[in-house]
Structures are given as structure tokens and as C-alpha cells.
Amino acid sequence: MSTPFSRFLLGRPVRLALTSVAIGALLFASWRYRVSIADILAKANLWLLGLSTMLALLANYLTGLPFNNFLKQFGINVPNWKTCYLQLVVQVTKYVPGNVWGAILQAQLLDSSRIGAIFLAGIDTSVFYMMTLSTTGLALLVYSHHPLAAGLIAVTGWLISARVASSAWLARSVGWIARLLGRTLHIVLSKPTTGEIGRLFTWAMLHAIAQAGSVIILLIAVTHYTAGDILIGTASICLAWVVGTMAIIIPSGLGVREFAFVALATMFHVSADTQSLAAIAIVARVAQTLPDIFAAVIVAGTEIIRPTQASSIDIR
């Protein structure tokens, strides 16, 4: 008889196997394109790489702002600075097979038992940024030909993302399912306000600027692309991030994101051959892993230095 526990045991080996295959494929590609990778790194501007890393770390930190909004929809009230810090925590766990570990660690740091609500708020945050980064990628693709249209696409997409996020669609769905099962969940459902939509729009815009800025500076640091190719390359990386995030059974979209970038950059006619694009994808993966390493250092250092004490945060 199949049980949730048996399905978990069967699912975990599959995830581990897929993760192992993805890592193996990346290592093989790194070896195959080692000459191109070495050439890129030898010519890279280290100062710009450092600036790109700091912007990416800032983008990760900013994801805590909408995360705070989604936690409130589940009745968990936490200061903004705390949720931004908790989003740095997630960067530490996203390379571990299984999507719940980030929520478990966040719940522990909050001294909360509501792992399910925290996990769902994290899903809300991921969906929100998949929508906003998709919009950002599309706007960058259009910018070279129609700057005004690109601006309209970005603003419209961010507004739609903010409106959808403010509707608490996931919290409402979970609450509806719970009622069908005869259970009661502590979910705060209120009508979206103009202020809430405005805040979500602002956070989407700030994150898009930081994330796209990080990628643009990264490409400037490691390539000699024209301005048009840099915009298309940045759009391809943004859209590839969305594709990688959707591959939820593979931690951090390992391999999926790189394949998607090469495919998209080729389809959008970036002036580079497949070998160069593959090398850039691998270098970009390493460069975009650095903010996660810094996040791990920040979290570890903070938790070691800070004395353990009971949380005074309202987690009703």
C-alpha cells in the first residue's frame, strides 16, 4: 500500500539521481569547454565581477520584502529585515535535494512550528519573481527595437504580478482545500489595497533592477559583446532562471538553467557560437553561486555570534 512516507522514500532517490546527473553533466561540460572557460576567466574584469556579485546578493536580500507580505497572508507577522535575512537563509539550502529544507530552517530561526505556511509563502515568492523576471526578460528583448514598448511591457507585467500576488491566491486555495477536509487554518484574507499593490510593484521593480543589473555587469565583465548582445544575453539569463526554477525536482535548476540559456541565446541570435555560449553559461553559474556562498557565510556568522534566545516575533 502506498503511503506518503513510502512516496517520500521513492521520490528522494529519484531527486538525488536527477541531481547527480545534472551535476555530472555540468562537470562534463566544464571539462569539455575548459579552454573557452579559462580564456573567459583570464580576460574577466574582477572588479566588475565583484560588483555583479554584490548586486546579486542585494537582489536575494530584496526577495524578503514580498516574502514578508505572503507570510502575513498566512497570519505570520515578521519585521521586514527579518524576512530579508530569512531569504538569505534559503540561498544556503536551495542546492539540497528536496524543496522543504529552506522552510524548515526558516521556521527554526523564527522559533515557529508553522513550516507548511512558511513553505507556501516561499512558493508564493518564487511564483511572484518568476512572473516579474519573465516580464523583465521580455522587456529586454524588445528594448533594442522599441524602448517605449519595452518600458510598457515591464510596467504592465510588474503591475499584473503585483495584483496577482496581492490576491493571496495560494492562501485562499489552501484555505478552501482545508475547509473541504474539515480543518481550519489561520489565514488572513483581506481585499487587496492600492498600497499593497504599490508596494509589491515597487519590490518587483527594485529586484528587477538589481538582478538585471547584476547580469548585465557580469556579461560586461566576461565578454566583449555589443550592447545589443548584452541585452539579449541578459534577457536569456533571466528567462533561463525562470525555466530552471520551474524544474523543481533539480536543486537550483542545475544544468537546466545553463541549457535554457544556450538555447534561448541561440534562438535570439546572440553573436556567439554554441561553445562560447556554453562556456559563458558555466561561468555565469559559478559567478551567480558566489552570492549564495556569501549568504551562507553571513547566516553562519550571524547565528554563531548571536546568542540563542526565544523569539519575540509575533508568529500567530
Question: How does this structure look, described?
Answer:
The protein is an all-alpha fold and 316 residues long. It has one domain (14-305). It has 13 helices and no strands. The chain has helices at residues 4-32, 34-43, 46-62, 64-73, 80-93, 101-110, 115-143, 147-166, 169-180, 194-222, 227-246, 256-267, 274-305. The longest helix is centred in the C-terminal third of the chain and has 32 residues, at 274-305. The protein is globular, with a radius of gyration of 20 Å. The two termini are 37 Å apart. The model is unreliable at 1-10 and 309-316 (pLDDT under 50).
TL;DR of this structure?
The protein is mainly α and 316 residues long.
Number of structurally distinct domains: 1
Label the overall shape: globular
Largest sheet: none
Radius of gyration: 20 Å
- Alpha-beta content class: mainly alpha
Secondary structure topology:
Layout: H1 4-32, H2 34-43, H3 46-62, H4 64-73, H5 80-93, H6 101-110, H7 115-143, H8 147-166, H9 169-180, H10 194-222, H11 227-246, H12 256-267, H13 274-305
Notable traits:
316 residues, 0% strand, 77% helix, disordered C terminus, mainly alpha, disordered N terminus, single chain
